Protein-methionine-sulfoxide reductase catalytic subunit MsrP (Polynucleobacter victoriensis), 318 residues
Amino acid sequence: MTKNYGITASEITPQEVFEKRRQLIKLAAVGAFGIANAEVFSRHAFAQNNRLAATANPKYFLSDKPTSYKDVTSYNNFYEFGTDKTDPARNAHTLKIRPWTVSVEGLVNKPKVWDIDNLIKLAPLEERVYRLRCVEGWSMVIPWIGYSLANLIKAAEPQGSAKYVEFISLADPKQMPGVNNRVLDWPYTEGLRLDEAMNDLTLLTFGLYGEILPKQNGAPVRLVVPWKYGFKSAKSIVKIRITDKEPATSWKVSAPYEYGFYSNVNPAVNHPRWSQATERRIGAEGGIFAPKIKTLPFNGYAEQVAHLYKDMDLRKFF
Ligand SMILES: Nc1nc2c(c(=O)[nH]1)N[C@H]1C(S)=C(S)[C@@H](COP(=O)(O)O)O[C@H]1N2
Ligand SMILES: [Mo]
């Protein structure tokens, strides 16, 4: 993953590389260029040793302007490293991302402890541009790199009784100063219903903006579930457990009236402290005075996921 393509020094930033490729992908959409060309371009233009090659998946290309690399990597929620937005970027350098294993266990025929460097090769890496909306009322647009979590779940062969998937993050006070703070019941635990976890949109994520995940964004592996509030997208995952019971998730345990298990982005159901009707796009022109944008049901992914909830009252199952 850290192959050198013959370029040793460059001023090119991950964002510039992404923007150039984005233009090429736009051209590809109108038939002037092939996606393959965009991919070749990205490989040769990228010149940092933490780069991660991936093929852009045009199915998940958004016309929304991507949030800048700087904002994506300096305005974060990662309570294991502190509760302020700037804490993770400042504190996450103490996280050791090698060696790293992810244990896949529970109601499966093939449990396995994956070494991260094998896990990353399980399926071809794709670049997908997703919106991520935090329940606090802000959102970003991020070019992630990963593959559908379904690849990993299928490899584990869930048993007939399997209904849910639990995701557990690392909680090591030696590496993560925030774990000494009792804001949450550590380890950070999240969960999805098995069919949600198997949906093609659910991304097992290893990188962003053409490089491996920065530590503050959840290195070396995290989840991105773009139709749900950001907190469902657990960072720095060490365990994935297939179960027959709904997992007790950290935020729901800490404040059950504020956070539900499903946490689908829903502009019609407000959080007790934050409206979910509109959102502030981080980095938008005008800063905090930029006009708010309307939050879309399922964060704009209704077409792909609304069917998963067709017989459910989403006010009750928030
Ligand atoms: N382990 C862990 N995962 C986490 C969090 C956290 O505090 N710890 N915060 C969540 C929240 S509230 C959000 S909005 C997203 C933020 O992801 P980003 O900082 O990469 O944008 O990560 C989620 N994943
Ligand atoms: Mo969030």
About this structure: The two ends are 39 Å apart (CA to CA).
